[in-house]
Every structure is written in C-alpha cells, then in structure tokens.
Amino acid sequence: MFTLPLSKLIDDQRLVLLADKVDRSQRLSFEDGLLLYETPDLTGLGVLADRARTKLHGKKTYFVQSRRMSYTNICCTRCQFCAFHASPGDQRGYVINAEDVIAELKKPQNQRICELHMVGGHHPKLKIDYFENLFRAIKGHFPYIHLKVFTMVEIDFYARSSKISVEEFLARCIAAGLESCPGGGAEIFDPDIRRQICAGKKDAEVWLDAARACHKKGIPTNCTMLYGHLENACHKVDHLLRLRQLQDESLALGHPGFLAYVPLAYQTEDNELNRAHKIPKTTGAQDLREIAVARLLLDNIPHIKAYWVMITPGLAQIALSYGADDLDGTVIEEEIAHLAGAKTPQGLTIEYLHRLVTEAGFEAIERDHLYRDRC
Ligand code: SF4
C-alpha cells in the first residue's frame, strides 16, 4: 500500500509499534490513547489513522444533503460554553411550529434534502405532545425526509418534563416519525470538567443511558465530544473509551449503535466559559489530531466526521487524510456553532463538497442517513 516503509513515514518510533496493532486489528489501550495525544509527530499520527480509515472505507468519502433547524433556542440549562440559548422570557427566544417547518422545507433550496437535523434547547414548557405533532406534520408532508432529532440530553430532559420514561418518550416519538438522533450533548464525560463547562447538564451516565435506550429501540445515533476548552488528554481518552464500550455493548446485542463519531471544536465567542477563561480557538493541528485519535481508538464506530462548520471546509478536506471519511453535508442554515463564532458559510453546495473530496484524491459519495449511496 505504501511506497516507503512505515519507519520512514513515521518519525516517532513509538507510533510504529502501534501500527502493528492497527494492522492486526488489535484494540488500542488507554495508554496508547495518551500516546496518540502526546506524540509531536502529527503527520505520523495521520499516516496511522489513514491506514485505519483505508482498511474500513478505502477512498470512499461521504456527505449528505441536510437541513439544520433548531425547534427552540429557549433553554433553562444554560451551559457555560453555549452561545445559542436564550433564557425563558428573553426576547430572542423562539419556538417553531409545524407550519413554519413545512413552509421552510418547501423552499427551492431545500428541494433535494434527504435529512432534517433538529436539536434545540431545554424548554421548560415543551412536552411530548409538541414533538409528536411536529414529527407527524413533517412526515405527513415530506415522508421521504429522514427525521434526525435530539441530543441525548434532550431525550432525558423532555422525558422527565413529560413525566414519562425515556423508553416511552422514544416509543412515542418513533411512532410519530423519529428515525435517528444526532447524538450531541455529550460534551466531555469527566465530572469535574463538566461542572466547569456545563454545570446544569446531567452526568455522563444519563447521556450513555439515553444512547443505550435509542439503540435498544433500533434508533441509530451519532456520538460527539466537545474539545478545545479545559480538558486534558486523560479526559478525552476516557470519553472516547466510554463511547467505544457502549458501542461494543450495543453491537453485541444486535442493536444499531453509533453510526458516526463527531469531534466538536469549542467555539469561543459570546459565551460565559470564554469570558471566564479566555480560551484560544483550536488550531488546525489540534483539530486534525482529534480526528486521527478518534479513528484509531474508536475501532468499532464505522464513520468519523470532519464537521466543516466548526473547523472550516479546507481543514475538513485535509482531515480526510487523517482518518475522517465523512464531511457531514450541505448543512444548510446552521445556527448553534455560528452564534458561538464559527465563520464558515451557511451551507455548502453539493458540487463544492464533491470538489473538496475529489481534489483531495478521494471518492465522493452522496449518501443517505444509513451511508447508502444516494446516486
Ligand atoms: S448546549 Fe444545549 S442544553 Fe446547553 S445551554 Fe445550549 S441549548 Fe441548552
């Protein structure tokens, strides 16, 4: 596969030893994870991650035509890192209704979307019936649009506020049209860091239990980690290995599990966390390392996303050589990252995504929600 021996492509010889594990599909340990974060040899790390990516996907690189929408920005949880939420009573607050969504989806720019990705704040007054009505109305008008809704913490929050179990909440949402979950809200599982960045959010177990419940109901999800704030390498390896462990569990039971992992770069503008800690934006090297480490540690999660909205399309293109095989998609009208300072465009065309992939030497595949070729 390579013209030069690995020892010439990788400077840090400790990584060459890990290459042997990767080639034999042997699982990397916690200590290996720390080494991946610690090595100064970023290009060597990329070679290793690309090796793992190629074994799984060859040159295939996926993207989807998707529309973002947030059903409400009103949130009583008030995470310190978040620039999106409005407190109840705030004039900036909104809740969308089914008519608004349908009118929006009828617009010409949304004609070819196959996936509607919705997340929102923790609105103290919304209950299960709001979501049932919303989903039924959307699916009634657009049965071909895949409904991908809720972070894991929203599922827990709205089940509790509706005074029903997570299982019942999911069963009713699925009956109304829910088909998968974007799976965000994991932030970082370490409790001390969690207290500093999202004190109002429930702990890691709540997130993992909600993901487990989705998988059990046959709902595939994604999983995420927010990096580039107060965390260190131990916190990140711990987070990734907890995701890997749950994926083992779900797959062993024949459940769909996590389809993709999405590392989310902390956006620094207009949020309490940055006002308190003055955290610099993540660098390209940091972003590429997160992609590469994830590809190597998460051996049981099929896809690793380079989320161009947060790291820029150019860097996402480079990330394809550092283990990523998914560029997310057109992502029309993203709100959450842009309010926190992301300077990327409001959507990319399908032609541009094609170009990003093919110019980098990969094979562009427009996918559906299950990574099936849509063309
Ligand atoms: S991240 Fe989500 S839960 Fe936290 S404040 Fe923002 S909208 Fe609310």
List its traits.
375 residues; 17 helices; TIM Barrel; alpha/beta; single chain; binds iron/sulfur cluster; three-stranded parallel beta sheet
Number of helical elements: 17
Percent of residues in helices = 40-55%
Overall pLDDT: 94
Give every kind of bound small molecule, once each: iron/sulfur cluster
What is the total tally of β strands? 9
Name the assembly state. single chain
- Class, according to the CATH hierarchy? Alpha Beta
From the 3D coordinates, which CATH architecture would you assign? Alpha-Beta Barrel
Overall shape: it is: globular
Q: How large a portion of the residues is in β-strands, by DSSP E? A: 5-15%
Number of domains: 1
Strand order of the largest sheet: 8-1-9
Write out the CATH superfamily name. Aldolase class I
Distance from first to last alpha carbon: 29 Å
Question: Spans with pLDDT under 50 lasting ≥5 residues?
Answer: none
Give me the secondary-structure category.
Answer: alpha/beta
Give the H and E element order: HHHHEEHEHEHHHHEHEHHEHHEHHE
- Profile the largest sheet: 3 strands, parallel
